[in-house]
Amino acid sequence: MSVNTTFAQNDREDFSMDLIYLLFILVLSVFLGFALISRVPPLLHTPLMSEANAICGIIVIGALIAAGKDANSPLTIFLGTSAVALASFNVVGGYLVTERMLKMFKKKV
């Protein structure tokens, strides 16, 4: 067994452990998010979602970085572009919902 084969085998093992670790974090965050959101009273859902959508603006910046960094693969370009588009759509939708919610509380003249 050569040294290069050993390194390749270690790389594959590291990749599979990283993937399992990331999937564990994803599943844990889904359960934690569901548990937290289900305990929020219905009156607070719209303001909470407005805040979450505002935070999504930060995701747009991360998506732009991901789209531009090492963009030599078509898959990287596609994933980065779709991340920018979806995050931007989420931000605009969040602000529209917030504006609509605030209009409900204005006094009619």
Structure report:
This protein is mainly alpha-helical and 109 residues long. It is built from 3 helices and no strands. The radius of gyration is 21 Å and the shape is flat. The model has no long low-confidence stretch (mean pLDDT 76).
Features:
109 residues, mainly alpha, 84% helix, flat
Describe what is shown at a glance.
With 109 residues, the chain is mostly helical. The chain has three helices and no strands.
What is the approximate shape?
A: flat
The N- and C-terminal alpha carbons lie at a distance of 83 Å
Sheet-strand content, in percent, reads under 5%
Low-confidence runs:
none
Count of individual beta strands? 0
Quickly count the domains.
2
List the helices and strands and how they pair.
Layout lengths: L2 H36 L6 H24 L5 H32 L4
